[in-house]
Fold these 4 entries.
Entry 1:
Amino acid sequence: MGALRQPRLLEGDALKRAFIARTQALGFDVVRIARPDGIPLAPERLKAWLAEGHHGSMDWMVETAERRADPRTLWPDVKSIILLGLNYGPAENPLAALDMKDHGAISVYARNRDYHDVIKGKLKDAAGILASKGGADVKVFVDTAPVMEKPLAQAAGLGWQGKHTVIVSREFGNWLFLGAIFTTAELPADAPERDHCGSCRRCLDICPTKAFPAPYRLDARRCISYLTIEHKGHIPEDLRSGIGNRIFGCDDCLAVCPWNKFAQTARETRLMQRDDLAALPLADLARLDDAEFRIRFAGTPIKRTGRDRFIRNVLIAIGNSGERRLAAEALRLLDDSSTLVRAMAVWALSRLLSPEELAHHAASRREQEEDENVRQEWDRALHREEAVA
């Protein structure tokens, strides 16, 4: 009996077609391919951004800059980079929750199961086609690795980086989760997408904290998404009022883009959407302890932020609400174990109580406070009230 014949491996266009067919079956909405040398301007742009300090406290951006700027430094054997998009377009206006001052607004992307978990499994499944049918090596990445997905997505033709630095698609507007597959397979590359922003600057002008020093440049230190999600410390006082009732992320610059007129509502089953996260009562959120927080937000990106930082954000929203009845929630949190929470409870009360009431509470707590940041928050609040008086 002769030896079994090995199945013929696919190459080029044939392998690309087989791969795309699999990604469509997995629910991806768009697939494009870039060359590893497709982002030649990225190294200098990244270097300038980091030099300006616009990365804030995201020190890993500096530590991984070399690998991030050139895909071939991350993996010298890579021959093709595949960018995949999964639509998460909202059914309703994502900015509607901003008018509900006694509720917290959650960014659209976080009203689903954690996209890292959703996409990574799908990417591994899709990448298996390249290995089994093409004999290629693969690596999959979803946001957490030093990969510049957005410039690569533009180089692949998936969309273009708008003036707000986020990928904009002519088919899906501003609502695409991105994933990347690096492979040793040589696949036909797609044509890059050109910029279609024109003279429009809606995304820049709507930003409540003025996080864009210029078109196509984002200062993360002023970005509400960075401040409420990535930033681990106390949020600068001059930015708190601009945060409004946004307690996890910000959709303003995405939601006002004119290209959203072509966007499509995401299919709920793929992302396990949570309709209960669109707008949440601040009073309920302020009462969450660590265990309750973990249960409430299990499986969502919100859980990764942790209870203390989340309650910090909730207290800023309470301070911005103008709802005096919410002062009771801030008063209770003056005794919280977290210094982040105690400091923002002081700030919230300074916005909701009279100078006399604030001084009364300070008298029993300011001198007993051991944390310097919280004491400074008391001092600023009392000084502010004295100045107003």
Entry 2:
Amino acid sequence: MTATTTTLHTGAAEALALQLPTPAPLRALALPGGATSAVLEAAVDGVVASFVGGLSADLALVLTDLGTITAAGGTDHGLVDVTDVLRPSLEAGASVLGVGVLGAARRESAASLFADPETVVFELTAGGLPAGWFGIRIRENGTIGTTAAQPVSSIPTGNLGRINNVEMTLTVEIGRTRMSVRDVLGMEPGAVVELDRSAGAPADVLLNGRLIAHGEVVVVDQDYAVRITKILDVAESL
């Protein structure tokens, strides 16, 4: 492991720790011996994601109060799960790796990733006490293994106040289509792409890629906006 790669591991851990929505700021301290048995036991319930770019990496986050952060979503809202809450932190950690794409965050066991000798493990501490662990495995020219997403359990009722400042991506989709590579390469200014939705049909409103509402596109002070016409029930949106 080169000094440059080690610096990237540390930079990713520190960037992630700064973005975590925890009551107290966390410090990231590397564990020289890797994951301990206690870490591996806790890692059965973690959040993992894969980054693909000039450098590829697997990232895993385990928090001792993951249940508390999960509860902050609230079953009565149901639109925010723990992967949504922690994704900005994972994005911050991945940002030090350069240009690339961070895949969907998944809640699943991270024990195998933490146990890999190629994974650098950091203890996340607050006031000298462990609040969680972060593992990152960087592959300079390798491929990232993929794991099927696991269903996320229902989120118990809790206080949303702890995650009020977490930034999320809201997307408005007016339609989709499928095109061959030949057709895409053949596009030029003036080309018309037909979508799978009729004119006047409601647009889909997605939160971190999850459908949460329908709306109509409007113009406000010469800027596009969306007027929400229907908030979807959680079960309906899934």
Entry 3:
Amino acid sequence: METSGGIQASLSGRYATALFELARDDAANPRAIDAVEASLGRVRAALDQSADFAALTTNPLLSRINAGKGVAAAADVIDVDGTTKKFLGVLAQNRRLAELPAIIRSFRALAANHRGETTAEIVSAHPLTDDQVDALKDQLRARVGRDVAVDLSVDPSLLGGLVVKIGSQMIDSSIKTRLNTLAHAMKG
């Protein structure tokens, strides 16, 4: 696990590492890492799809107790595992719910590394189909030389194409970037 200047260097990375270690060391559930990762995926989807849930995680006026109650109720609705539910409660108590997106990204990177995979952050203009994701994983696997876990997000401002980030490499084939490049070239 990378500790010097890597994931653990950030606040969200330290929380993600703590959650990962809790899941990894859970003797009662050998598949706890997968269960937590799946639960965090549902939390990420809830953040993206529910403005109310997103507001709950970022509202500084909400007391710690009310934030904790709200997150516990949401956790029951989106069906997260017990470890993740307790973790969300800790985040609410420590006023760190706004860090959830970064914590989820860091946890996914830790879990992928644990499985011997590398993680690619993929931003597309439109949601990708399962077949497109599988084809993209195959192409990235051929390029990187090992299995690739993908972290998908959508940014309609790209207009079309993809932005793929693997480690320090970034592949930007978005129409937005191409149009900006063309505009700069035309200015001379």
Entry 4:
Amino acid sequence: MDFAVISGAAAGLGKAFSFELSKLGYNTILIDLPDQGVKDICTDIECKFNRKSLCYEVDLTKIENIVEITNDINKRYNVSILINNVGVGGTKRFNDADVNYLNTIIQLNVMATTIMTKQLFQNLKKQEKSYILNVSSMAAFSPVAFKTVYPASKVFVHYFSRGLCEEYKNSNVFVSVVNPGPMKTNPDVTARINKQGVWGKIGLLSPEKVAEIAIRQLFKGDRLIMLNGNKFNWFVLKVLPIWLRLYLLSKAVRRELKNK
């Protein structure tokens, strides 16, 4: 019995991935923080789709926690899909952001993605055909003031994924990266998107739609998944000089701070 492992699965895009894969007939292992409702999601999946769904409630900012749960997964389950969805962002002036805030972004977006992949890679290699999908962001294509560390962390996810894909292109493990634009994944994110005005809403898609497209393209062998609503954004970001896109995006994000 093969399983799909999804991190950050209690809400938003992670939850949407969990339901999409269950709908397609996959058993799932869901990972999120304690007391975020991930157990209820497992129960819901088993009732709706008649698929096995298990969970680990753990803080993925701690490397020892990742090593512990992945060792347990490797001993007990066959993993054919890994979705590194866990991540966090936010909008703050760099001087106002405390060390824990910055460290959480780095640990979840960079460390957790890397170590989860490393720990489960041999498990994935044992299966006939396996997939890794890392969740980056449209923010990976431009620096943005007042977010500083978040876009930088997503550049890491993007380059890490592309490099790993090339390294193992002749193996049974296929690696892809998806770069979603704005998604109203929770009330806080929704409020921040609304404050950004028009720029914040270009390419806006629901988590369910992003998950549906991303999984479909993953299985088709798409190494770089650009969602339909974001292809125009990606083209514009490629064409505009960095100083101009930095100015325009930062101006949109600055509205979040003014409206707080």
